[in-house]
Write a structure and sequence with these properties.
The chain has 2 domains: 3-44 and 153-212 and 309-357, NAD(P)-binding Rossmann-like Domain (Rossmann fold, 3-Layer(aba) Sandwich); 91-145 and 218-306, D-Amino Acid Oxidase, subunit A, domain 2 (D-Amino Acid Oxidase, Chain A, domain 2, 2-Layer Sandwich). It is an alpha/beta fold. The protein has helices at residues 11-22, 41-44, 51-56, 60-78, 100-113, 124-130, 132-135, 152-165, 181-192, 274-287, 330-345, and strands spanning 3-7, 26-31, 48-49, 86-87, 91-94, 120-122, 141-144, 148-150, 168-172, 201-204, 218-228, 237-240, 247-252, 256-260, 264-265, 295-306, 313-316, 320-324. α1 (11-22) crosses α8 (152-165), α1 (11-22) packs across α11 (330-345) and α4 packs across α11 (330-345). It is globular and about 65 Å long. β17 (313-316) and β18 form a beta hairpin. Strands 5, 6, 7, 11, 12, 13, 14, 15 and 16 form a 9-stranded mixed beta sheet that branches. Strands 9-2-1-10-18-17 form a 6-stranded mixed beta sheet, sandwiched between helices. The structure holds flavin-adenine dinucleotide. Flavin-adenine dinucleotide is lined by residues 7-13, 31-33, 37, 39-42, 44-48, 173, 175-177, 205-209, 222, 224, 260-261, 302, 304-305, 324, 326-332. Residues 7-13, 31-33, 37, 39-42, 44-48, 173, 175-177, 205-209, 222, 224, 260-261, 302, 304-305, 324, 326-332 line the site of flavin-adenine dinucleotide.
């Protein structure tokens, strides 16, 4: 049994803590966030696990890593004490008449990056069978069947509960701007009453909060709106082609939807701007008129932690490791990359799948 300190309790910190506890290790968490995780990017995320549609706009490797996560998510969620809303009905991609050029570009990229088994083109009749309310507005769609989404906030809550019952101590702290051996030691003494020498490794999971220590880490602002739309009954995640950024609409239980997201190179964490709010809401209304009577539950903004290649990285530090750079792909990549992180900590390097992205 080893003992680890995890700094940061967003998506990566709490999932890694849970996997390490499952592997019978002791874990301490130090985080400036609350137990709900409201200070993390993963809290406002749409939580799509979308390997194919994300690969189209980035890199084929996104699909490879994402496919591994797609296998792992149902297995991991089955280990939790309650069912989490995890839907693997797939993603539908649509475009309005004025955005057909975007759709054509997207289709060409799909042909180039993916295999023909990864998607189907649906005409209006097929679309009406698949997602009837979407066929009221669109004549054509692309269906990516191997994609999923989950209720991230339920996952966050459940992980916090489960960690409270495992070998885990969770301590709220002030922001730790720079993780040096000295700062870790003095924070441990202050918050836990003992020095950091007891840890086999300290793992930095601060996301955007690690920018002072990671020269090439940048923030990419994303804005989302959550709505309650009793008249709309989508089963699929829906992506709407848009000339400025890819828009999506992701269902949650009880006719709630997450609509997002802007992609703005900025570390601005201030509330959603009027421009983004108007763009997002008019896109929503254009997908189905039932959204006109929807109620706005929340408008939120946060920043995605990103590295130059927009891929995640595990790297060594003086006191252990850091794991960061999940960008738009925290949910898409976390099971795959966290499995690698656990294998590295266990010294089981033969099990590491994506070592080309690590600096260990
Ligand atoms: C609008 C939006 C939509 C998204 N949609 C998706 C999606 O559909 N699918 C997908 O795969 N990904 C999505 N993402 C990306 C995903 O949310 C991130 O990749 C993921 O949350 C990164 O996880 P993380 O743990 O590294 O960072 P975070 O989730 O931000 O967690 C960092 C944690 O560290 C804590 N912390 C920060 N600084 C300090 C400090 N100095 N001291 C102590 N603690 C600190 C924070 O409070 C937080 O709890 C989205 C992101 C955004 C913003």
């Amino acid at each position: 049994m080893k003992r680890y300190l995890i700094v940061g309790s967003g998506l990566i910190g709490r999932l890694l803590a849970w996997r390490l506890c499952r592997a019978d290790h002791y874990v301490d968490i130090l985080s400036s966030d609350d137990l709900q995780g409201t200070g993390s990017a993963g809290y406002i995320a749409a939580a799509m696990v979308a390997p194919a549609t994300e690969a189209i706009t980035s890199d084929a490797m996104v699909q490879t890593i994402g496919n591994k996560s797609l296998q792992l998510w149902p297995q991991w969620l089955a280990e939790l004490p309650e069912p989490i809303f995890y839907q693997n009905n797939g993603t539908l991609v649509v475009a309005h008449a004025g955005d057909q050029a975007e759709m054509a570009r997207f289709t060409r990229r799909a042909e180039h990056v993916l295999s023909t088994d990864d998607y189907k083109v649906l005409d209006k009749v097929n679309l009406a069978e698949c997602e009837p309310q979407l066929a009221e507005q669109f004549d054509l769609a692309m269906l990516f069947e191997q994609e999923a989404y989950l209720d991230n906030r339920h996952l966050y809550r459940l992980l916090a509960q489960v960690l409270a019952t495992e070998h885990c101590r969770w301590q709220h702290c002030d922001d730790i701007e720079s993780l040096t051996c000295e700062s870790i030691d003095s924070n441990c003494r202050h918050y836990f009453g003992y020095g950091s020498a007891i840890y086999d490794a300290v793992i930095d999971c601060r996301g955007n909060g690690a920018r002072q220590d990671i020269g090439d880490l940048r923030s990419v602002r994303g804005e989302v709106i959550r709505v309650h739309a009793p008249e709309v009954h989508f089963k699929h995640a829906v992506r709407l082609m848009h000339p400025r950024y890819p828009l999506y609409l992701v269902p949650r239980p009880n006719n709630e939807y997450v609509l997002g997201a802007t992609v703005i190179e900025s570390d601005d964490m201030s509330p959603v701007s009027i421009r983004s709010g108007l763009e997002l809401m008019s896109a929503l209304y254009s997908v189905h008129k039932g959204f006109s009577e929807a109620r706005i539950l929340e408008m939120s903004a946060h920043c995605r932690p990103a590295l130059l290649n927009n891929m995640p990285r595990i790297s060594r530090t003086e006191s252990g490791f850091r794991i960061n750079g999940f960008y738009r792909h925290g949910y898409l990549f976390s099971p795959a990359i966290i499995s690698d992180m656990v294998a590295i900590l266990e010294g089981d390097t033969g099990q590491v799948c994506f070592g080309e992205y690590y600096d260990v």
